[in-house]
Amino acid sequence: MRSLPLTFCAAIVAGTIALPASAALAESKAEDPANEKRSGTVSVSPSRVSPGGEVELRVDVCGKDRSARGNSEAFASEARFEPADGKGLVAHARIRSDAAPDDYEIWVTCKDGHGKATGTVTVVHHGRPSPVAPVRAGGGGAAVLAEEAAADEGPGTRHAIIGLGLGAVAAVAVAFRSARRRRSALH
């Protein structure tokens, strides 16, 4: 007889625990679908850019008549999205001039806070020479180019001196031989 009250108490405790959980699930499903968090991707063009360059960003997660803001460690400042011609939003962002070559993540948040998007931009360095401090020979980066060009052109000063020395020895040898011939012709 004692098991019946014990079973009844256990059923009441289980119902009390399960009721708030099921009510919370029903409430979350009944929320307005416009308040759902949406996620998407950021379209980046061009996807590879050098420091100081500009990229175009596009998202469609926010809708067409809204705005958004985008950030990245590669950007010089925050990107502000505006409605594009078709659907979605568009923004332009400038890459920091001191950005190191790497892949940088982009985060975009819709103004209403109900949409987010992520993407990636790759910063690359093109092998253009740039002035270095201190400038070694004036002209900034031209010194590096002039040095490389001189190395590719051929013989240097050392080769010219050796050539002049050998030419002088040959001239002296010809002069002595000519002088010997004149003496033998007179005798």
Structure write-up:
This protein is an alpha+beta fold. Helices cover 37% and strands 26% of the residues. It is built from three helices and nine strands. Strand 8 (102-110) and strand 9 (115-123) form a beta hairpin. The longest helix has 30 residues, at 157-186. The relative contact order is 0.12. Residues 1-26 form the signal peptide. Residues 28-39 have a biased composition (Basic and acidic residues). Residues 28-53 are annotated as: Disordered. Residues 40-53 have a biased composition (Low complexity).
Class computed from helices, strands and strand pairing: alpha+beta
Mean pLDDT over the residues? 76
Q: How many strands, what sense, and barrel or not for the largest sheet?
A: 9 strands, mixed
* Number of DSSP E strands: 9
Helix amount: 25-40%
Organism: Streptomyces glycanivorans
Region (Disordered): 28-53
Biased composition (Low complexity): 40-53
Transmembrane segments: 160-179
In short:
The chain crosses the membrane at residues 160-179. This protein is α+β, with helices and mostly antiparallel strands and 187 residues long.
